[in-house]
Amino acid sequence: MKTIVPLILLFFGFGPLEVWSQKIDQQTLIEDIQYLSSDGLEGRAAMSEGNIKAGKFIAERFKALGLSSQFPGFVQKFRLEAGNQDLGQGTNFIGFIPGTVTDDILVIMAHYDHLGKKGEVIFNGADDNASGTAALLSIAAYLAENPPNHSVMIVACDAEEKGLLGARALVRDFPFPLEQVKAVINMDMISRSDDNTLYAVGTRFYPQFRSHLLDAAGNSPIRLVLGNDGAPGEKDWSKASDHGPFHERGVPFIYFGVEDHRDYHQPTDTFENIQQDFFIQASEMILETIIGIDQSIP
């Protein structure tokens, strides 16, 4: 995530918390972000022991939810390459929920890696991006219990912090024609905001999502800002996270995140510094957007 400028398009939700149907298990959501950002996972740097522990946790949850996969054990291995340098092996975790109406696909994703350790200092990455990963697991749980119209691919990407390498590997070896993907929903940093704001990027390119975003925002106690996709006077986050490689291939996306805060890429990005109410509300809003897209886009 990069520092942003003020945006013109502001959409406010004034509904009280009670209007939410609370589709997400809030206790599990908070317990998951706490575990994923704990010292025991040592910042989840790609190829580290903590990263391996996080991956095992994700795979076990996918199995417990009854997800299927096009990849044995939910695992997609790929090489970590930067230029001509081979850095080792990364691991994406990919679950799948078959659609009840169409074989077209929604891809819901978040990266689970972070910066790891520098010396003895742990960069826990609670907001970046244990938050997106925990939301991913909760959204997967809801969709597993409430089968969607579209098929849904649930993706926990590795090596985002090394240049979106996990997402690039997924696009390169995607198990279906990319034309089947009707939407990519990416979550990266969604658990804190000093001004109660969540950002949604992508409607400049893919305006078909605007109504679903506004419908979800209309009942939310937090506000949603549409933009930062390169319009005049705005920053461009259209390739800032794992949705980028899909966007480069013309696959429609929405990217949910918050603006940079003082703990971004700092050892102070810890569970204690997330804002739990905001995180729960943001996760609910994202799920409502996904449900709206699933139920209306052919």
Structure commentary:
This protein is of the alpha/beta class. The chain has a single domain, classed as Zn peptidases (Aminopeptidase, 3-Layer(aba) Sandwich). The strands form two sheets. It has a nine-stranded mixed beta sheet with strand order 1-10-9-11-8-4-7-3-2, sandwiched between helices. A two-stranded antiparallel sheet has the order 5-6. It holds the Pfam family Peptidase_M28.
Low-confidence segments, ≥5 residues, pLDDT <50?
1-19
Radius of gyration: 17 Å
Assign the CATH topology.
Aminopeptidase
Average pLDDT, rounded to a whole number, is 92
Question: How would a textbook summarize the main sheet?
Answer: 9 strands, mixed
General shape: globular
Count, helices: 7
User: Which sequence of strands runs across the widest sheet?
Assistant: 1-10-9-11-8-4-7-3-2
Q: Which percent range fits the helix content?
A: 25-40%
- CATH homologous group name: Zn peptidases
How does the helix and strand content classify structurally? alpha/beta
Order of helices and strands: EHHEEEEEHEHEEHEHEH
Question: Strand content of the residues, in percent?
Answer: 15-25%
Number of domains: 1
CATH top level label: Alpha Beta
Please report the total strand number as a whole number.
Answer: 11
CATH architecture: 3-Layer(aba) Sandwich
Distance between the termini: 32 Å
InterPro entries: M28_fam (IPR045175), Peptidase_M28 (IPR007484)
Protein name: M28 family peptidase
Domain Peptidase M28: 92-289
